[in-house]
Structures are given as C-alpha cells and as structure tokens.
Design brief:
This protein is an alpha/beta fold. The protein has a single domain, classed as P-loop containing nucleotide triphosphate hydrolases (Rossmann fold, 3-Layer(aba) Sandwich), CATH 3.40.50. It is built from 7 helices and 10 strands. The chain has helices at about 50-55, 80-90, 105-115, 120-135, 150-160, 180-195, 210, and strands spanning about 5-20, 20-35, 40-45, 65-70, 75, 90-95, 170, 200-205, 215-220, 225-230. A 6-stranded mixed sheet has the order 6-7-8-3-9-10, with helices on both faces. A 4-stranded antiparallel sheet has the order 2-1-4-5, with helices on one face. A hairpin with a 2-residue loop joins strand 9 (about 215-220) and strand 10. Helix 3 (about 105-115) packs across helix 4 (about 120-135), helix 3 runs parallel beside helix 5 and helix 4 (about 120-135) crosses helix 5 (about 150-160). The radius of gyration is 18 Å and the shape is globular. Bound molecules: adenosine-5'-triphosphate (ATP) and magnesium ion. Magnesium ion (MG) binds next to helix 1.
C-alpha cells in the first residue's frame, strides 16, 4: 500500500464498443483516484457509460485503452485466471438485480465467494452468519431468494459482496429496483458498512440526494468526467 492510501487509480481510460458497423466511443479519457475508505458516487444521464466504467474498473470488462491500478497492482497485466483470482480476493460486487442463486439459501449464497476461494465450510458459515446479522437478516438465513423481499435480497447481495473481505466494493444502482424507503435503508447500510470498516465503495446511483452523501462525486458526461467534487465530511 502506498503512503497516500490510493487504492484505485484510473488513467486515460477509453472504451470503444464495436457492434456490427456501429462504433460507440463511450469513454473518451477518464482519470481519477480513490483513497481507501472513500465512498465514491458515479452519476450522469442514462447511457453515458456509468456501468461501462464500473465494469472496467471492477475488472469485469477490459478498456480499449488506459491504465488501471487496484491495490498497487496493474490489473490489466493479468491473464484471465489470474484476474479471476484477484477479483475474488480483492473485489466485491452488488448489482441492480441481486444475481442470487435461486436454489440456494441466503446463507449459502453469502458463503459462495468463499467456497469458490476454497475455504473451509465451517469457517465460512460463521462469517456468513455474522455478515447476515450485520445487514439485519439473522432471522432469514435459511430463506431462499424467492422467499425474501427485494430489499432483503439486496442485503443478502451486500453480505455476499463482503464475504471475502474485499478491499473495494462496486455497486451498480444497488437500490435501483427498490422503493424509496428500502432504497434509503440500503444506502444507509452501505454507508454504515463503509464507515465502520473503512471499506471503499464505488456506487453508481441515479439518486443525487444520496450522491451528496458520498465523499466524492464523479459526474460523467460525453465520455469524460464533467465534474469531480469532494463533499464535506459530515
Ligand atoms: N456491449 C455493448 N456493445 C455495444 N454498445 C454498448 C454495449 N454496452 C453498452 N453499450 C452502449 O454504451 C453506452 C453506455 O452504456 P452504459 O450501460 O455504460 O450506460 P449507463 O450510464 O450505465 O446507463 P444507465 O444509467 O441507463 O444504466 C450506451 O449507449 C450503450 O448503448
Ligand atoms: Mg447502467
């Protein structure tokens, strides 16, 4: 870890999608840094490239050009198996639709990233149980996703994202599918988890009010960061 605690560094990032004869230059040069423990909100109009950027910095997709360092590692140097291992150990994801496995219980879903990492089941159960308690779902651990509310499913997804104790969590409109009160509750949970554990979160949100509570806001427009500002620490 470098002394200035920069956990994510993006330089000159570009992304061009080529589909058929259509060439879409979505990201035209993105630069930013994220410090450990920061909550960063990514905002901007629909179609501007927020998910594209999140997927690239989250290592799920590759840029057409540019540099990306996460936890002092040049992640673009990895081959696919190396990247998959790094991602599993270092990064957590929460998506708009929870992507929980329907045939598994809440606690089994939370354990899944740890099982993939090859850790012992008994240990994983303890940690998953602790995480589900932390997200307020201790009483729902044996429920399958179909037996949970939308807000509860997203909380399970948050617990799963934290399972391998990631350095950084990426969330793409995690409350986009929830009503106002469930959305507020989910954001409060993410904020509390970040503050309590000094964990870094990068969150795409359409909700400008919630974005104002982030430490840093990146406003994307026409392939670039139109506006980057730090919010006051409350
Ligand atoms: N796989 C792809 N192939 C071609 N074009 C794509 C692909 N994925 C996204 N795009 C295009 O890139 C642009 C940015 O898409 P992206 O999903 O990143 O936007 P967004 O800011 O997340 O939008 P929203 O707020 O609606 O989720 C859009 O114009 C989209 O049509
Ligand atoms: Mg999107």
């Amino acid at each position: 870890m470098s002394s200035d605690n920069i956990i994510l560094s993006v330089r000159g990032l570009q992304k061009v999608y080529q589909s058929g004869r259509n060439r879409v230059h979505v990201l035209k040069g993105i630069d930013f840094d994220v410090t450990e423990g920061q909550i960063v909100a990514l905002i901007g109009p629909s179609g501007v490239g927020k998910s594209t950027l999140l997927n690239i910095v989250g290592t799920l997709d590759r840029p057409t050009q540019g540099n990306l360092r996460i936890a002092d590692t040049d992640v673009l140097e990895f081959d696919e198996p190396g990247l998959a291992r790094f991602r599993n150990e270092t990064i957590g994801f929460v998506f708009q639709f929870h992507h929980l496995l329907p045939e598994f219980t809440a606690i089994e879903n939370v354990m899944m990233p740890g099982l993939i990492a090859g850790r012992s089941k008994a240990q994983l159960w303890q940690r998953a149980h602790g995480l589900l308690k932390e997200v307020g779902l201790e009483h729902r651990i044996e429920h399958r996703p179909g037996e949970l509310s939308g807000g509860e499913m997203q909380r399970v997804a948050v617990a799963r994202a934290l399972m391998n104790n990631p350095r950084i969590v990426f969330a793409d409109e995690p409350s986009g599918n929830l009503d106002i009160s469930a959305s507020k509750a989910l954001h409060d949970l993410l904020w509390n988890l970040s503050r309590k554990h000094n964990r870094t979160f990068i969150i795409v949100t359409h909700n400008n009010e919630l974005a104002r509570e982030a430490d840093k806001v990146l406003d994307i427009f026409d392939g670039r960061i139109k506006n980057e500002h730090m919010n006051q620490v409350i």
